[in-house]
Design brief:
homodimer; 161 residues; alpha+beta; Aminopeptidase; five-stranded mixed β-sheet; 30% strand
């Protein structure tokens, strides 16, 4: 039921990405085009990987992830960018099976960690994650530079400063 | 002064990783061996990249990073794993120059974001990041599965459940 995504899953994955963003109350944040996802997952130098939960040719859930690296452990890990299960397929252990698949990949590869982020208000997801033994990294805050601030800093010739 | 790290920098980078962990009050968390860092940065399939600030053959600061991917933007980005400047070299704009170098890489590659994490108590770093136009992602919390919990989930044959 859980398998690596293939190129035929791209349209279904795009729909699930939109569904997840709607659930996360940010539907307007999704700008990804199918061709971008296809290149990211199946291009020459994949930027990400995806697994799907499928039943009878229908994609019920997905995990999109990429490899990260820890300078503390000295090992790679997995960062789970998106985990989503269609509402009508919940309660069947699909989310757990998707995370377990990534944990198995990490385990086989000798990776030390599986990391992800959750919206603070999403208490049901948090309860589920804690039931798996995951721990909150709440002494840390993420910071992001994007848009004009990123462009401004990135086009400065700092070597001249 | 800012340049990509080369293999001759590995020992200096390891020292800076230890110094940063000490500053972050977790000196015992660092288990990385030089050979692991060498493989991660300069092996067949690099898991990470590093830039250094060097002066007269001495490494004064470092940025260790890897490529991530956003399903919202459809684009890759940069995740800055470690940023560190030696205490005696602070106040000279080296941290800013290292971040600006990554912003320039992101800008040239068409990446949409530069992300990192900061310890909540590190107010001076937070003030510096905000001066660059970075914004806190404080509606999100990181979660981590590691150690025995990761091994237990990863060695379960969830397909049988």
């Amino acid at each position: 039921m859980i398998r690596p995504a293939d190129e035929g899953d791209v349209e279904a994955l795009i729909r699930l990405i939109h569904d997840l963003a709607e659930f996360e109350r940010s539907p307007a944040s999704v700008m990804i085009e199918p061709e971008q996802l296809r290149t990211a997952l199946f291009g020459e130098s994949p930027a990400a990987h995806a697994h799907v939960a499928a039943e009878g040719g229908r994609v019920l859930g997905m995990a999109i992830w990429f490899r990260n690296f820890s300078t503390w452990t000295g090992r790679s890990g997995i960062y789970l960018e998106d985990l989503y299960v269609r509402p009508e397929a919940r309660g069947r252990g699909i989310g757990r099976a998707l995370i377990a698949e990534l944990a198995a990949i990490a385990h086989r590869a000798g990776y030390g960690r599986l990391d992800w982020s959750v919206l603070r208000w999403n208490k049901s997801a948090i309860g589920f994650y804690e039931s798996l033994g995951a721990v909150p990294m709440d002494e840390w805050t993420g910071y992001r530079l994007s848009g004009e601030a990123l462009a401004a800093l990135g086009s400065t010739d700092h070597r001249e400063e």
